[in-house]
Amino acid sequence: MNIEEIINNTRTHLTEHWNRTVSSRLSAGGMGSRYPQHDNAESLEQTLVSAAWEEYSHPAISGAVGYIANIPGEVGMISLDNLNDDCEVQLVDPKETGFLSAVVEGDNYEPTAFTVMIVGDSDGQSVVYTFHPGDPVERSSITGEPRTVSVSEARELGFGLAKIELKD
Q1: Angle at CA of residue 24, ends 91 and 133, nearest 5°
Q2: Which of 10, 82, 86, 137 sits most deeply, having the most CB atoms within 10 A of its CB?
Q3: 16-46 burial by CB neighbour count: b if 16+ within 10 A, else e?
Q4: What per-residue confidence (pLDDT) applies to 137?
Q5: In degrees to the nearest 10, what's the CA dihedral of 126, 133, 21, 79?
Q6: Residue 26 gets which letter from DSSP?
Q7: Per-residue pLDDT, 7
Q8: How many Å is the Cα radius of gyration of the chain?
Q9: CA torsion angle for 141, 144, 74, 113 (degrees, to 10)?
Q10: What is the separation of C-alpha 78 from the centre of its chain, rounded to a whole number of angstroms?
Q11: What residues form DSSP beta bridges with 103?
Q12: CA dist 65 → 46, 70, 112 (Å)
């Protein structure tokens, strides 16, 4: 397994997906888990390529292979159970996958010492599905129109977690 080759495959075969994923993880990237020590794609990509990756199993990884490396970052996920029922939740599809993610405003990121990368197949090529600081979570299978709902409505739709979006 050569992470540099897998990243290059992803850049070539899933260019927009790769660019969106990398930009979403930068210090000013937007929502979800991030790497505050990186403010540009080149810096983050170099860190990913030069890390010592090991295969990693986790119940939330299915139909793909997980890898773990000692790359610190901040987990940008929060349990909806920790929020008031009437708080606003944005339902969005930031990576244009067809599945919605729940997003709430906040600044309560949790530091972690490791990064997980999930690799799978795209047209016969090994590609990066995603990478992020901290443990993986089940990917969303919730579809629909992007919109704003309450925490209680998000729970009724099946969301248990929300990505944190830094307050302005």
Answers
A1: 100
A2: 10
A3: ebbebbbebbbeebbbbbbbeebeeeeebbe
A4: 87
A5: 120
A6: B
A7: 95
A8: 16
A9: 10
A10: 13
A11: 90, 163
A12: 21, 17, 21
| 106 vs 108: CA distance, rounded Å | 6
- Give residue-wise pLDDT tens across range 134-160: 999 887 888 888 999 999 999 999 999
Domain count, the chain: 1
Given a contact cutoff of 8 angstroms between Cβ atoms, the answer to whether 116 and 54 are in contact is no
Give CA–CA dist 27/29, Å, rounded. 6
SS3 for 15? helix
SS3 27: coil
**Percent of the chain topping pLDDT 90:** 75
In one letter, which amino acid is 111? Answer: P
User: Mean pLDDT of all residues in the chain?
Assistant: 91
Range of the domain at 116: 3-166
